[in-house]
Design a protein that fits this description.
Layout: E1 12-15, E2 18-24, E3 31-35, E4 51-60, E5 64-70, E6 73-74, E7 76-81, E8 84-90, E9 96-103, E10 106-115, E11 135-136, E12 140-145, E13 148-160, E14 163-174, E15 180-188, E16 191-199, E17 204-212, E18 227-235, E19 238-247, E20 252-255, E21 258-261, E22 264-266, E23 268-272, H1 286-298, E24 303-305, H2 313-322, E25 325-329, H3 337-340, H4 345-360, E26 366-370, H5 380-396, E27 402-406, E28 420-424, H6 435-448, E29 456-461, H7 479-493, E30 501-504, E31 510-511, E32 525-526, H8 539-554
Parallel strand pairs: 23-24, 23-30, 24-25, 25-26, 26-27, 27-28, 28-29, 29-30
Antiparallel strand pairs: 1-12, 2-3, 2-4, 4-10, 5-9, 5-12, 6-11, 7-8, 7-10, 13-14, 14-17, 15-16, 15-18, 18-19, 20-21, 21-22, 31-32
The protein binds alpha-D-galactopyranuronic acid.
Residues 129, 307-308, 333-334, 373-374, 407, 424, 460, 505, 526, 528 line the site of alpha-D-galactopyranuronic acid.
């Protein structure tokens, strides 16, 4: 499965899933490994860091332009067609594509190397409190592309004077060496919008449409209404390409210290969720994505934070359909200033930001973009990099507020930069102070340090518990202790008028690196999930469920 809805009727597209030939560098043995998947699910590669090469054949009946899209290769990819290098990409969590013109008829060999090693070339995939797996971990799509094709369609819902309108930005590409006249027809909610395009050889062409839509139902948590946006490009009246997107009409605004969804204040009751499932690694299967959201909604949560990287688009599609609000963030967790000064860091962050906005812009569920979780925001050099990334994001998307989760308590010098201030607080785990008292001190500091009159989110709070460890003493690491800590933190945060959201750390236990201090974590897992990596609920599950349910009952969205 590529997306939860059909993205083309005209363009021929197929998913290159199934078994690919595979070889791991330095090993003779040949394998057949599934795609998408992590190589760690194979007994020979359970903890393997290295470079592996996946290979398969593709057959063309006639000469074609091919477009290959990789939704995720972990973590560094190089792509070869018949031995020619055609693409390089860094970062497991963002899609990339490559277009090859005029590929002759016949059988061709597609090879993809994946490299999950840590090295100075990798500033974001580093030893961390989550695991950087290896492999082609998200879907691969092969498309046959005409000389004039639709490269991108972005939809922005606009609410003005009580009327919904939509801004639709279309980018066409001309792969030929000829001038070309094309017509574009957009259909949304039964309305047709038409435009003309003059395309120069080898160039892109942007078109923009703005149209009122009078009978629209808003996208909301309780009624997540989605609409199909169909764009068709024709030459001389013949439709030659199309791109289907799925959109929603909703507005996210800030009013003082409140976050408004469709004009009404919301409180984000959320979970932090790593893309990690016991047997799947980061290549979480679709059914396990559904299971995760079933459990998250069973606990009456209304939000998910994609800690700490962009997520699989099928998961975002599910959030669109279910009315689950998403804080999606670029890829970074806990980098010190020296790590941020890696010569690759700024470019790799900016590539990630560009790729998530380009590919995830149309998801109504995404209501906030985050950057740089717990990086060096207490330093001048760190501030320069935060500021640069906020600026880049604002240039790419003015429709969503921005935030960043800090842990530089009482030292952060960047709180004036985001639209929403967020901090990670572990009262009862890393700090012994009572949650309400500790949070009051944090809020006082935030409001005096650049965060005054801004919405505030407690972006992480929680405690560790080893699944199945019960102890009447309620000692640390028992399920009882974790439930007690979450109970106390939720009591402190859910009804604090200074807060607009609180995200439990974390939904499920996840595997972590075996390097550095992370190896001291029991089982080499981060055990703060309210379910374990097999989604077996701990005692905390029912505590969070009761607390979120009570909050939802007295302030429905
Ligand atoms: C930090 C970090 C999380 C996780 C958490 C923990 O807040 O943002 O990724 O590492 O601490 O479990 O300690």
């Amino acid at each position: 499965m590529i997306r939860l809805f059909q993205t083309h009727n005209i363009r021929r597209t197929e998913e290159l899933d199934g078994l690919w030939d595979f070889r791991m560098d330095g090993m003779e043995k040949q394998y057949r490994l599934p795609v998408p998947a992590c190589w760690e699910q194979h007994p020979d590669f359970l903890r393997h860091r290295g470079r592996g090469v996946y290979t398969r054949k593709i057959t063309l009946m006639r000469m074609e332009n091919l477009r290959l899209e990789f939704k995720g290769v972990s973590h560094t990819a190089d792509v070869f067609l018949d031995g020619c290098h055609i693409a390089h990409h860094y970062n497991a969590y963002t899609p990339f594509s490559v277009l090859i013109k005029s590929v002759p008829a016949g059988e061709h060999t597609l090879s993809v190397s994946a490299d999950n090693r840590f090295s100075p070339d990798s500033a974001l995939h580093i030893p961390n409190d989550y695991y950087s797996y290896g492999g082609i971990t998200r879907p691969v799509v092969l498309e046959r592309i005409p000389d004039i094709y639709i490269r991108k369609v972005h939809f922005t819902p606009i609410w003005h004077n009580g009327v919904w309108s939509g801004k639709i930005q279309v980018t066409l590409s001309n792969l030929s060496n000829k001038y070309c006249h094309a017509t574009v027809c957009i259909t949304l909610d039964g309305q047709d919008l038409k435009g003309e395009a003059q395309l120069n050889p080898g160039e892109d062409c942007d078109l923009q449409f703005v149209q009122d839509f009078l009978n629209i139902r808003e996208w909301s948590v309780l009624d997540p209404q989605l609409y199909i946006l169909n764009t068709v490009v024709s030459i001389d009246g013949n439709p030659i390409d199309d791109l289907i997107e799925r959109v929603g009409f909703r507005r996210i605004e800030i009013e003082g210290t409140k976050l408004l969804l469709n004009g009404k204040p919301i409180f984000l009751m959320g979970f932090n969720r790593h893309e990690d499932y016991a047997c799947d690694g980061c290549a979480v299967s679709f059914q396990h994505m559904v299971q995760d959201l079933d459990m998250i909604q069973d606990m009456h949560a209304n939000a998910v934070r994609t800690s700490h990287y962009p997520n699989d688009e099928r998961f975002l599609d599910l959030c669109d359909e279910r009315g689950i609000l998403v804080w999606e963030e670029n890829h970074a967790r806990g980098l010190t200033l020296p790590q941020m000064q890696n010569p690759n860091f700024e470019r790799q962050c900016e590539d990630c930001i560009r790729e998530i906005v380009e590919n995830h812009y149309n998801h109504p569920a995404i209501i906030i973009w985050g950057i740089l979780n717990e990086c060096a925001s207490e330093t001048d050099e760190g501030r320069r990099m935060y500021e640069k990334q906020y600026t880049q994001l604002r240039m790419l998307d003015v429709s969503r507020p921005l935030t960043s989760a800090t842990c530089r308590h009482f030292q952060d010098i960047c709180l004036d930069l985001p639209d929403v201030v967020s901090y990670n607080l572990y009262a009862g785990w890393y700090e012994d102070e009572r949650a309400a008292v500790r949070n009051a001190r944090e809020i006082e500091w935030v409001q005096a340090s650049g965060g005054a009159d801004k919405p505030i989110i407690v972006s992480e709070f929680g405690a560790g518990a080893n699944y199945g460890f019960r102890d009447r003493s309620h000692c640390k690491w028992s399920e009882e202790y974790q439930a007690d800590v979450l109970q106390e933190n939720l009591c402190a945060y859910l009804y604090d008028p200074n807060l607009t959201g609180a995200f439990v750390w974390q939904f499920a236990d996840c595997r972590v690196s075996e390097e550095l201090w992370f190896a001291r974590r029991a089982r080499c897992h981060n055990n703060k999930g309210v379910v374990d990596e097999y989604r077996r609920p701990k005692l905390a599950y029912d505590v969070v469920k009761a607390m979120f349910a009570a909050k939802a009952a007295n302030c429905p969205f």
